[in-house]
Every structure is written in C-alpha cells, then in structure tokens.
Amino acid sequence: MIALAEAATLDELGRAKVELLRAQLAFVPLRGNNAAPLLLLAARRLEHVDVDLSCSTYREAMNAAMFAGRLAVPGGSARDVAEAVRRAPKPARPLRAHELLLDGLAANFIDGYAAAVPLLQRALDGFDDLPSVVEELRWVWLASVAAILIWDDARWDRLSDRHVQVTRESGALIELPLALTQRAYVLLRVGDLSAASALVDEAETVVDATGSALT
Question: How far apart are CA 207 and CA 167, in angstroms?
C-alpha cells in the first residue's frame, strides 16, 4: 500500500505522511531501533506543512529513541532527537502541555536534569486537559516517563492507571502491553505483587495474540 501511495502524485504533505507511515511500521510492531531516524526525517518534512503532526512525529521519534537506548542506530539517539526538537520551529502561541513535555525531555538530554525539571513540571500540570482519547494515547507514556524523572510518584500512579484504562477502552491492542507493563511497575513499587503479576500475565496474552513486542 505504501508503494502504491508513492507511485501516485503526492503533494508535500502526502509525501511526508508516507514517510511517517513507513517509520511507524518500523517501530510500532516490534519497537525496532532503526525507527527514530525515519521518524525524524518525517517530522522535519512535516514542520512546514502540518505543525501539529510534526510535533506528534517528534514525540514518536523520542519514544523510539528512548526504547532503543544504547542500541540506537547512528542519528537515532535520544540526544539526536532532542537536538532536532530544539531546532524545530515553535508556534507563535503559548506552548501546550504536550509541547512543553517534548521540550522538557529535550532539555533533559541536552542541558541536564536541573534544566528539565521546571519544564516537565509545567507540562504535567497541564496534562489533565488533553482534548481527546487519541491525544491521551499519543502522549501518556511519555508523560509517565516525565513523572518518573521528576519523582512525582502520585502523578505516575494516576497516569499509568489512565493509560491502561484508555488503551483498553479504545481497543488499542498494540499499545496495551506497554500500558500494562508501566502499570505493573507502579504496583510493584507499592508492593501489590498479585495485581502486578495479573497485569504481566495479561500483557503476555496480548503479545501472543498480536505479535507485538512487550516493552
């Protein structure tokens, strides 16, 4: 289907969306470590045709780079993504919570922890007002990571619980193992081992059924 799309006459936005889809297919099913550079390419192309989609694509690139960790391919590390986020054009309006979140994570990888904390706190303070379930699914995992970074255990608890709830309700099975795993870590921290074990079992069942990668 991607090949058919590429064979058609596409405008700049269409070509960028094809690149985005190719990058998503490299990452979503198996969390591959080659996805971040592809996502960065798509995000840069989108900067001047769809600012919101570009921001969302930078978010996916940050996800991919953080999953890859030390196994990231050249040009696909979290630092590489952070530097691209910092260079990206910013909207004239005040930044929204998810945009602040991305800037805060970029600051963490470029400027260090102390510089990142105020940005991440501001981002998380506005995170309860995302306009749709789709937006929540896009950003809630990174928001949970931010809560962990700034040692906000109460918010991590709320976000991880919401991640599982929204993922189940929306039927996003590819996302569900990630949400369940994150929630299981929270439950382990508070000593609820039986509940954590149940979530791990559920995650393994979903992985077996979908062929996705447990994170």
Answer: 14
Determine the 3-state secondary structure of 59 from DSSP.
helix
pTM score, two decimals?
0.80
The Cα diameter of the chain in Å comes to: 57
Is the Cβ–Cβ distance between 38 and 19 less than 8 Å?
A: yes
Dihedral sign computed on CA atoms, order 109, 115, 117, 118: negative
Query: How far apart are alpha carbons 170 and 176 in whole angstroms?
Result: 10
> Residue 105 and residue 144: Cα distance in Å, rounded?
12
Task: Give the pLDDT confidence of 156-201 residue by residue, as tens digits.
Answer: 999 999 999 989 988 888 889 989 999 999 999 999 999 999 999 9
Do 123 and 101 meet the contact criterion of CB atoms below 8 Å apart? Answer: yes
